[in-house]
């Protein structure tokens, strides 16, 4: 057997829109040795993980489990399991990840309608309500926090509209869960999914998901389509789920009381996902949200203290990420490279209409910390000064310190 | 921040058909801190991983990469990206995982034909050839090693048939890769996928996959179907790939020179997958296969030395797993429980027509070791004796020692 060492990765402080540095306890959990798929200790770990994520998602949903893939796998599992070809879907779009929901729903064969607002805003409830009444969708699919714009879509009103109009509601809470208020049951959300790599302080690769009774009924109702029935009229209800890997009917049977065999559990990711929830709940969900609020506010005031202009409707911003306009005359990518090469700090670029216009700076998960915020602001000050931007010495860290005072 | 400890899992020696214990170096790699998705060190790690898996798969294929999910995600990525609704597929079925290929191909909308043999046998080349000429499939999808029966399907002949007949060939090498000869290029295989949790000595959750030029051409040819084109006649060529997450056209663009954004990389699984290949190639692929052959032979002779009868066509058995008939009068599940509870050793149950009839015992990855083989045989002797089976004292370990002598 080899005893050669693993190649080491460089030390980085990841202050972009995610992924972020994983909490050390999560990394420790992911170095634990494996047990078998149906070992009693594995069953206990799965049940414990389900219970922990019920608390994280604020739900009593029995079917609260992990999809073995990145947050995008969780999104696709929800949509491919809920949607049948020809179903109408309404997507409130306020950034890149709304467009992703559109694309995935289209690939499921759905008829997708959108209600869009400019980047930097959120979608008003009445616009959603009008669209629901016009389109009569089977499902509203919404993003809570879209890192592309930093906006945090209010969901309580959309939940009310969906309940009143008899429409299913799916929410992608990847970027926001654990660092912003999220109420699966109180807001009437039928399915919500997330990832570990944002406020949950873990690596990408596991997608926590929760399914309420209305969603479970829809998904279970598709199970009667047996193997070999390839003659289905694919415009009818009861079509077979087009994926095996992301078939939530099977995944629920695997995680549930019956514990039927499906895929081979990604045990190391399960250990990581469990540790993420344990770290979060040991701190307390409210305390975690408050910590994200505090350090997000410090970063916001800090970048303003550096003279930078913040993008978008700050009243509706996620706690855990801020987008700042790149000052005139500054090469945004060169500045990011200087942050990385000279300080080991990553901040984010941006996409679509914001490409080249803003940097995105995150304060989330384990990195929602005072030292991480102040270090990032100090480094950014140095980089801006070197780029010729007139910066008040200590303007960023000073403004952040006032938030902490 | 919490400093509470992670719950520990019990120590287990996993000698079933997989998952098995991960190599310590792999676990160490998976506790490394993260870097950003587009960090130069991440790009280097991805390129290195691609190069390593080219050697593991024995291929020059540029597009050799990881799908972020379990081995089943790799299978589905291959089939959903290659197959269009109405395509004819031929699946040689000799166990449970052949049936899985059938099911996934059906969910892709393919017209699936099979050529089946009884469990414990492999499919003869001429049966495949006859079926290919009769069915004229677009794709032959075959399993190499099916752990449900322990059989290892010969593939060189099937590759020749596919090349001669102009048919694409996909192979699921999950259970066999690294412990049995596998030749992507020499055997004319267009796409092969695997997992880490068998002979590669890692945890489930990452699916190495390699795509040859004929497959790449098919998949790239589907990219022109742009978002929003929902009016395609889905019996025609050039339909949109039904999945976003498992769309190998996008995944190739993400891993390739263009490095276009797709999902957020499951970095910890990438570290693990890279370490698996490094461990394997540090030992040497030939040496690893020989090690699996040696310890598999020792286990085979060992169980025979205990008086157990081996299931199936031993000439066509995988090196890394053996199925043994449960002796008359022995409660198979009770014996497995005794192995686990009294000795911390997991051996496997079985499925389908073999359920309750055989145990499956693996010697793979890190656990293809002399001490693991002898310990398992000693424990099994004790459990059989306690169950009232007449066993020659030291019959198992003695026979295994002779293989090692």
Assembly type of the chains comes to homodimer
Interface with most residues: A-B, 89 and 90 residues
CATH class of the largest domain in chain A: Alpha Beta
Quickly give the CATH architecture of the largest domain in chain A.
Answer: 3-Layer(aba) Sandwich
Shape call of chain A: globular
Strand share of the residues of chain A? Answer: 5-15%
What percentage of residues of chain A falls in helices of 4 or more residues?
A: 40-55%
* Poorly predicted regions of chain A: 226-236
Strands ordered across the widest β-sheet of chain A: 2-10-9-8-5-3-4
Largest sheet of chain A: 7 strands, mixed
Q: If you consult CATH, what is the topology of the largest domain in chain A? A: Aspartate Aminotransferase, domain 2
Please identify which CATH superfamily of the largest domain in chain A we are dealing with: Type I PLP-dependent aspartate aminotransferase-like (Major domain)
């Amino acid at each position: 057997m080899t005893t050669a060492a693993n190649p080491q990765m460089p030390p980085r402080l990841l202050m972009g829109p995610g992924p972020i540095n994983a909490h050390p306890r999560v990394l420790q959990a992911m170095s634990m040795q494996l047990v078998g798929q149906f070992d009693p200790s594995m069953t206990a770990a799965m049940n414990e993980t389900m219970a922990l994520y019920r608390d994280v998602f604020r739900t009593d949903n029995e079917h609260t489990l992990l999809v073995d893939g990145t947050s995008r796998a969780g999104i696709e599992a929800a949509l491919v399991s809920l949607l049948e070809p020809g179903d109408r879907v309404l997507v409130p779009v306020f950034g890149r990840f709304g467009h992703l929901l559109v694309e995935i729903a289209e690939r499921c064969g759905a008829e997708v309608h959108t209600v869009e607002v400019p980047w930097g805003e959120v979608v008003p409830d009445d616009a959603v309500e009008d669209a629901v009444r016009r389109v009569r969708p089977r499902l509203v699919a919404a993003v809570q926090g879209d890192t592309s714009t930093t906006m945090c879509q209010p969901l309580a009103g959309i939940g009310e509209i969906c309940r009143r109009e008899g429409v299913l509601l799916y929410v992608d809470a990847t970027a926001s869960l654990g660092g912003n208020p999220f109420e699966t049951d109180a807001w009437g959300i039928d399915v919500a999914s997330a990832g570990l790599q944002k406020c949950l302080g873990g690596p990408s690769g596991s997608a926590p998901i929760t399914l309420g009774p209305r969603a479970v009924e829809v998904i279970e109702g598709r199970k009667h389509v047996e193997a070999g029935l390839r003659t289905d009229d694919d415009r009818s209800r009861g079509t077979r789920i087009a994926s095996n890997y992301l078939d939530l009917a099977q995944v629920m049977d695997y995680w549930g009381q019956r514990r039927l065999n499906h895929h081979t559990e990604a045990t190391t990711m399960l250990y990581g996902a469990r540790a993420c929830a344990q770290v979060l709940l040991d701190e307390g969900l409210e305390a975690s949200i408050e910590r994200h609020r505090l350090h997000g506010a410090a970063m916001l005031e800090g970048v303003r203290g550096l003279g930078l202009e913040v993008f978008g409707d700050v009243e509706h911003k996620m706690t855990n990420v801020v987008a700042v306009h790149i000052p005139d005359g500054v090469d945004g990518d060169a500045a990011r490279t200087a942050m990385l090469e000279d300080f080991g700090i990553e901040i984010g670029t941006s996409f679509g209409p914001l490409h080249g216009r803003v940097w995105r700076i995150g304060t989330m998960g384990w990195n929602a910390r005072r030292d991480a915020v102040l270090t990032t602001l100090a480094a950014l000050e140095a980089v801006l000064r070197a780029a010729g931007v007139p910066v008040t010495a200590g303007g960023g860290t000073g403004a952040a310190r006032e938030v902490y005072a």
